[in-house]
Amino acid sequence: MFDTVRKHQKLLQLVLMLFIVPSFVMFGISSYSGFMDKETDLVKVNGKPITAQEVDNAAKRQAERVGGNMQIAQSLQFRQAILNELLQQRILGFAVINLRLQVGKEALIKSLQGIPQIRALYRQDGSFDDARFKQLLASNGLNEEQFYASQAFDLKIGQFVNSVARTELATPKLSEIVSTLYETERQVQSLAFDAKDYLNKVNPSQDELQAFYNANAKLFESPEYVDVEYIVLKADPKEDAKVFSDKADQFANITYDQSDSLKPAADKLRLSIQSQKGLTRGGVAGLAKDHPLANPKVMQSLFSDEAIKNKRNTEAVQTAPGVFVSARVITFHPAQIMPYKDVAAEVKRQVSQRSAEKLAVAAAAERYNILEKDPKSSAGFANPIWVSRNKPANLIGPALDDVMSINPDKFPAVVSVNNPGVGTTLYRVDQVRQPTGVDAKIHKAQAQQIQALGAQSEFASFMAYWRDAAGVKVINPLKPLSSGSGS
Prior knowledge:
13 strands; alpha+beta; 4-stranded antiparallel beta sheet; disordered C terminus
């Protein structure tokens, strides 16, 4: 979350990204310093509760604001996210009040002028339409005093969080140490023992092949797949946005309410029902990336129990701006073990590969034991190359870690790195040096990464401090609506 703080410098996009919206949209000062009548308390901040009813109302407003349906607002996961953001909002509000932060008039005016609805109230001659302004506030249940107070409060919190986001940590020495470690080079030679080089030495018997098939039948299982039908609602560029929004609502509601068929939605909105066979969890080869059935959420829904066992329509999913899709499973084909005769060639390939790999690993171990006694011997190794963490060449993962972690006092030294499925590679390291030229861009990027990590830690401590200061106390867990919690 703090990366977003540093990148955007906006409270409304970071700390409260799921919940806080401009105060213009029904969130006045009471959202911070006034609370509802006592109901089922979930959490208390400075002795004042956040209730289940409050969370449910906020979830509904947020779902409506982002164009979601009420199913989303009623889900426990969504409501829990709303509760988390409300809690964070209250903690920050407590901190602002506790510190008695002030906002200058010029800063407030500048902030107000950034609100599109406010800018729209200025006439062509530059005068401000005060009557329309008051009417707009009244339609949102606010008076001028509440509105200005809420805007000032938003601004205080924004400035408060941003002041932490801009905190510079004194880490130049640490940055210099890390950069030096990443730039230090070592001379390396490699000697690979690959399974492919030993395949001509293996010849598994029929009994070995059959035994491997019997013991590893799941390796030769055809994947489950489904045959599906689906409908797609696309926005017409010439169509009014409100009209399409209404259609999208109908699309979502009909496919959900009449979940045993796509036909009602297709007939109502004049959509064609399309079909696709052989759809696995990995998709279908040849489908374009922007194809509705290539969407991960659609795929996940199609392989859910609701879709497979109950044959229900999937929820309406927005796969792209102005594109909604709903699908249903027509036929489910479960995974099946393929007969030995159909996979005999693959069985032999796998058994041969594994046997060859064992030979390669054994040969590498034998050579490693010899080199441990005489590490100066470089016979058979490839030409030496210089590598560093910034310029690893073809060394990745454990190979690079092992090579770079050898104590220079032990040079020349040899390390053995296993490559599962391939074999083993030996690396001989005999020299270390500092580079003659340093890449300033890489050095700067590393310093920024170290700065960001330190800032994340500082921001976490900052929030933890104010959480303790506000006396946050969890009273009751948030419960699913079906269990009788407020709605």
